[in-house]
């Protein structure tokens, strides 16, 4: 699987400058700049409605650009959509498998859409079934598969044309933890083979596991860009102490409690059921909280994550 360095775009597989997408009077993507390098795993992280899927549809050459510049593999999707589609793979958020066909035939029929010779597409289908660990299910009907198996089959189908770029929109939404990790493993192996991965997710652990570099999106704009570790280092502390308290029954907030511990942390976030204290040493901070007579119903000390970065940048959590 080749990376296929593009003919233009300064070596970028995907180049966007001032990219916009409007639906009537609503602007879903509000002028973003993105460059995806050959062979990297690049992520768009943000909540539902951030503009991630709208951006992916423009990159997939299925939704016209409303403004700005977009080049995919050095080509303009406005004039070269068919050539672009021939060299990318798309794994949509919802599985669109043909339930009337077997697992193998889902791959074979899809491969024929790309004009691949019958013998080649059957060989390719067998390779992909082995790659996504579905060889034993080759003759089963799609409805007999678990959710995780369907997701792996959808990924296999998106690889039938040996794409230079694989687009994945929320690749593990709805899967249980074990199934998610199997999908992550397959995607990591693809990256090792040189495929450029571009994914959207609202799972911070998925972004941390899979991406070399990502942008954090909110309300159609990019609010931060970098590697997961760099973003955490720039926008959060080493540790977070979570202090859970009963939700106030009078409709109030935990702000009065936050004021009592504000000097114990670099910053304090007030959530409906808990306080987040951002600090270099969570255990020491929790001990000082107890010394002040406060008695949370539960405490947790953890490392900072991309969720904390997003909360710092936008004032809300990824699942809001």
Automatic annotation (TrEMBL):
Record membrane topology: Peripheral membrane protein
SMART domains documented for this protein: AAA
UniProt GO MF annotations: ATP binding; ATP hydrolysis activity
GO biological process terms held by the UniProt record: response to antibiotic
Top-rank lineage group of the source organism: Bacteria
Cell location: Cell membrane
Occurrences of domain ABC transporter (ranges): 14-244
SUPFAM superfamilies with a match to the protein in the record: P-loop containing nucleoside triphosphate hydrolases
Keywords: Antibiotic resistance, ATP-binding, Cell membrane, Membrane, Nucleotide-binding, Translocase, Transport
Main location: membrane
One GO term describing the cellular component: plasma membrane
Pfam family, one: ABC_tran
Family designation: Belongs to the ABC transporter superfamily.
PANTHER family registered for this protein in UniProt: ABC TRANSPORTER ATP-BINDING PROTEIN, ABC TRANSPORTER ATP-BINDING PROTEIN NATA
Protein name: Lipooligosaccharide transport system ATP-binding protein
Organism, scientific name: Nocardioides marinus
Lineage: Bacteria, Bacillati, Actinomycetota, Actinomycetes, Propionibacteriales
